[in-house]
Amino acid sequence: MTKRLASTTKEEDSTTDSIINGGAHHQKKKFSKTYASHIINSPEDYKHLYLSVQPLDIFCWGSGPMCELGFGPLAKNKEVKRPRLNPFLPIDSVKIISFAVGGMHTIALDDENNIWSWGCNDVGALGRDTSGAKEVLKDIESKQDGDDDDDDDDGDLNELESTPYKIPRECFPPLKEGHKIIQLGATDNLSCVLFSNGDVYAWGTFRCNEGILGFYQDQIKIQRTPWKVPNFSKYQIVQMAPGKDHVLFLDEAGVVFAWGNGQQHQLGRKVMERFRLKTLDPRPFGLKHIKYIASGENHCFAITKDNTIMSWGLNQFGQCGVSEEVEDGALVAVPRKIKFVGEDENKILNVKSISAGEHHSLILLEDGTLYTFGRFDMFEIGIAKDKLPEYTYYDVHDKPRSVPLPTKLQDVPKFKNIAAGSHHSLAVATNGIVYSWGFGETYAVGLGPAGEDIEIPTRIKNTATQDHNIVLIGCGGQFSVSGGVKLSPEEIEKREDEMDD
Predict the structure, then answer these.
(1) DSSP for residue 13
(2) Domains of the chain, with CATH numbers?
(3) What angle do CA 51, 349, 265 make, to 5 degrees?
(4) 84, 106, 139, 226: which has the highest count of C-beta atoms within 10 A?
(5) pLDDT class for 40, splitting at 50, 70, 90?
């Protein structure tokens, strides 16, 4: 899931396409002077971070045995090794302007505030009923079309899960009142949406080490349709940051709330076993004066109003970036300041976005510079072995295991957007071309049939996307999604000329 930091000025971001710019009207509350004095963030600061004003062609790729790719039920579509245009979301009739990618599902937003969903629906993450899908036999003809199909699975997919469908609009009462959706969120087993009036709707469930944890306190185990989360702040919610089985929320006063599983301290507080269901709701944990939040699978980030980057949660590969020490099972129990080294140690960094996977993290600056840190052995951080920094952690066999502090990527283009999956990453260059790296066996890196791990950021170049300016990207557990705008022939030629130079 891609997460971006709100701009601190009204000026247009020079490294971001104008198509990522707003597109939803926001209903603003009227505040008293006392109330307004607490406001750090506003929905107006965030609406342009997740919505495109131009409709996007949607591309998907990777492994989709749980219907993740959204290409329909045929068995041949379980594995797509390069980006492919989704045929069920044609731009002439479905104008998608945003999406959020979970572990095994995706939700998308169109310009009429309809939400589409596809992927695994075992615990209700799609927000609609998929039980009525007809049973289909194994597609015998799929092996005859030469589409790199392994066919080691037991036939076709559930047609209602593997095909994008709308969630009924009546599930979202704020739409009737004229409020717009400003952000989508997806965890491994849950989906959520944020409205311009601060309302949060969610569905699905949270899991923990023992299995299903639940959805809301001890009242709801699994929520299969969109449900309004009871208000948990007296201020308006302006941003969400979903992880694997938790969600962070930020209100306009700069207070952070956490909801879900806290077994890796990702909730920023200790959760007593006997109270974990009674406290299964969004709760503050003492983190204030925050202007931006982000989540990895089991670790989290927050940026204070004075640009201090904090992190907490699981840290056994140094993915929190707070220390050179690396230890199995290490946890950062309370938010700590991230440590930068060398020339950046005392420099205030203007962060544009943070994205993180299971054991690695990415920090993108406003000037397009990208820092990475965390696990190395599947190339999650995109640093070449011969360019590892001196603070790299090596195991007992003298193999590099992790880079525990933020490290600037060298010899890469300037980027405008980033996304991290469980063990792979994507970054969009300022010219709209996507680069990928990391674990390759599931083809989530989108670089073809070799299925090899990709050591450093490598351009995705294929017929489907070569004529597009990619705007939004997202990574799941073993698949990826991108959205882009088709370029004119003149724009394509100009881009290629600039790359040649």
Answers:
(1) P
(2) 35-500 (2.130.10.30)
(3) 75
(4) 106
(5) confident
Q: Which of 490, 478, 482, 37 is nearest to 252 (CA)?
A: 37
* Higher-scoring residue by pLDDT: 398, 149: 398
- At residue 17, the pLDDT reads 42
> CB–CB of 4/47 below 8 Å?
no
Contacts of 40 (CB under 8 A, 6+ apart): 252, 253, 254, 289, 290, 291, 305
Q: Is the pLDDT of residue 151 over 80?
A: no
Share of the chain above pLDDT 90, in %: 79
Residue type, 341: V
Per-residue model confidence as pLDDT tens digits over 411-421? 999 999 999 99
Summarised one tens digit per residue, pLDDT across range 157-171 is 999 999 999 999 999
Identify the bridge partners of residue 108 per DSSP, sorted by sequence position.
Answer: 99, 116
pLDDT at 287: 97
Give the closest residue to 133 by CA, choosing from 108, 105, 162, 155: 162
Token pair recorded at residue 99: 């999406």
Phi, psi of 491 (to 5 degrees): -65, -40
DSSP-H helix ranges across 135-184: 159-162
With 0-12 / 13-18 / 19 or more C-beta atoms within 10 angstroms meaning exposed / middle / buried, residue 136 is: middle
Residue 265 CB coordination number (10 Å): 21
Contacts 24+ apart (CB under 8 A), 169-176: 169/113, 169/114, 171/127, 171/201, 171/225, 171/226, 172/113, 172/115, 172/201, 172/226, 173/228, 174/199, 174/201, 175/113
- The region, left, alpha or beta by phi > 0 then psi within -120 to 50, assigned to residue 348 is beta
Helix, strand, coil percentages (3-state) for the chain, rounded to 5, are: 10, 35, 55
Q: How far apart are CA 404 and CA 410, in angstroms?
A: 17
Residue count (the chain)? 501
Shortest CA distance to 9 belongs to which of 48, 51, 53, 52?
48
User: For residue 344, what pLDDT is reported?
Assistant: 62
Q: What is the Cβ-side half-sphere exposure of residue 249, based on CA atoms within 13 angstroms? A: 27
DSSP assigned state of 109? E
Residue 339 zone, left/alpha/beta (φ > 0; ψ -120 to 50; rest): beta
Q: Is the pLDDT of residue 50 over 90?
A: no
Q: Are 246 and 258 in contact (CB under 8 A)?
A: yes
